[in-house]
Amino acid sequence: MLLRLCGLAMLAAWLAVAEAASATPPTHTVHRILFVGDSLAHGVSAHMQIMLAPQGREWRNATVEPHVFTGGGVIRRPGQDLLTVLEGRLPQPEPPVDIVILMAGVNDVGMPIGGGTFYGEAWQEAYVDRMRTMIAAAGDRGLPVFWVGTPVLGHRLFAETFESHIRPVQYAFLGRGDSGATLIDLFKLTAVDGAYAEFRDFGSGTPERFRANDGIHFSPNGYRLLAGHILDRMEADLSMRLRPGPDWSVLEE
Question: What is the domain extent for residue 79?
Fold first, then answer.
């Protein structure tokens, strides 16, 4: 009789634990985020990893895996082919990738692709095809893809051409429902009163350095602002799209 009571007590305890466990939503908190892009992506990915540290945001212990190249772009150049990186890394089963972020475009100014005149119809078609192929390398594997738009530029050799020719092509494609990627726009975030600015107020009441002095890159404060904005957008999107399961990550409540 005593043994039977002990057995029943153990069964009741086990059922209570099982019920509590089933009522608790899964909180797999380790993500591997593949971040592929140019030198801007280098700064953003580094600060994103800091924000995802154990004492950071909800996605604790997440790992950002950067594959970034100074001078890299959507258009292939010797030794800096972002598509080759994607096609080489994504099939590797370990460690698995959960999310892909792409960020490139500034260095495509003055780069030929597709024949014909610079930024003409053939150039644009070849450029969009290249973007589509890069996105599909991840999207065809069922991975969420985010394309981070280029911030407002202040470099005289890049800004006008980029705004006139490359950003419109990128945004027109990414704005379509079938692009396969979610656009995270940084233009409005990085423009101060609608224009490029080297300094901005981060809340202290005193303007602090926001951009590097090259008109393209950022100060540490600037990169933190970008990284936080990107994470906010990803969290908002993926909280509705992530698939629960032992091999997938979900957001903590």
Answer: 28-241
Q: Give the whole-angstrom CA distance, residue 176 versus residue 88.
A: 27
CA dist 3 and 100 (Å) reads 56
AA letter at 197:
A
Q: Is residue 146 part of a domain?
A: yes
146: CATH: 3.40.50.1110
The model's pTM is 0.82
Half-sphere exposure of 182 (CA within 13 A, CB side): 17
Q: Judge whether 149 lies within some domain.
A: yes
Q: Quote the mean pLDDT of the chain.
A: 83
User: What is the pLDDT at residue 242?
Assistant: 34
Cα 202 from Cα 221, distance rounded (Å): 8
Render the burial of 169-200: b for 16+ CB within 10 Å, e for the rest: bbeebbeeeebbbbbbbbeeebeeeeebeeeb
Q: Render pLDDT for 108-139 as a digit per residue (tens, 0 to 9).
A: 999 999 988 999 999 999 999 999 999 999 99
Domain assignment present for 117: yes
> Is position 246 within any domain?
no
Domain count for the chain, please give it: 1
